Amino acid sequence: MKKLFGIITIATLLAVLSGNALAGSKSAIMLATARVLPVAKHTILYQKSNFTVTEADIMKGFIDIPMAMVLSIRTNSVNGYLLLFSAKNGRFNELTVFDGDNAYKLSETGGEVHMPYENNNYITKELGFRFYLSPDFKPGTYQWPVAVMITAI
Predict the structure, then answer these.
(1) SS3 string of the chain?
(2) Nearest-CA neighbor of 95 among 63, 139, 68, 70?
(3) Which end of the chain is more exposed for a tag (fewer CB within 10 A), N or C?
(4) Does residue 56 surpass a pLDDT of 90?
(5) Does the structure show a pLDDT above 50 at 151?
(6) Band of the pLDDT at 91, cuts 50, 70, 90?
(7) Tens-digit pLDDT profile for residues 4-54
(8) For the whole model, what pTM was predicted?
């Protein structure tokens, strides 16, 4: 489709230019529009590989993991972007993601968080997590259970 549009545009320009060269008094107006699609990119600069749950964490019902993930994000979408979180099912009752002073409650399997457009430069997001544990959760060291993706709005 883009190639066809390019060919039509060139043919139109040639016709207009050759018509002007021959007639000398004709003029033409050509309008062109372009649509820039929204794009969002991210790089995980740091992510915990595991975390340890103690008996005390189980007794209080949750474990906080500050600075668990650091992302570099860039988008051209003035509508912002979605951070999509996916957690391994069955390990938690729910989870909360912390981004500075903001907290976002998600289900036990994850969820999405709308982030506003800040600028077209790379920004850094330092995310912390709170995992709500069921009483039958066992103490131990576990692999990091949350994956993240990003999409422009």
Answers:
(1) CHHHHHHHHHHHHHHHHHHHHHHCCCCCCCCCCCCCCCCEEEEEEEECCEEEECHHHHHHCEEEEEEEEEEEEEECCCCCEEEEEEECCCCCCEEEEEECCEEEEEECCEEEEEECCCCCCCEEEEEEEEEECCCCCCCEEEECCEEEEEEEC
(2) 63
(3) N
(4) yes
(5) yes
(6) confident
(7) 444 455 555 555 555 555 556 677 888 889 988 999 999 999 999 999 999
(8) 0.76
Nearest to residue 46, comparing CAs of 24, 69, 23?
69
Alpha carbon distances (Å) from 100 to 51, 126, 129:
21, 7, 11
CB 124 within 8 Å of CB 71: yes
Closest Cα partner for 105 from 69, 122, 130?
A: 130
**CA pair distance 129, 131, nearest whole angstrom:** 6
* ∠ CA 101-146-121, rounded to 5°: 55
Cα 47–Cα 58–Cα 45 angle in degrees, nearest 5: 5
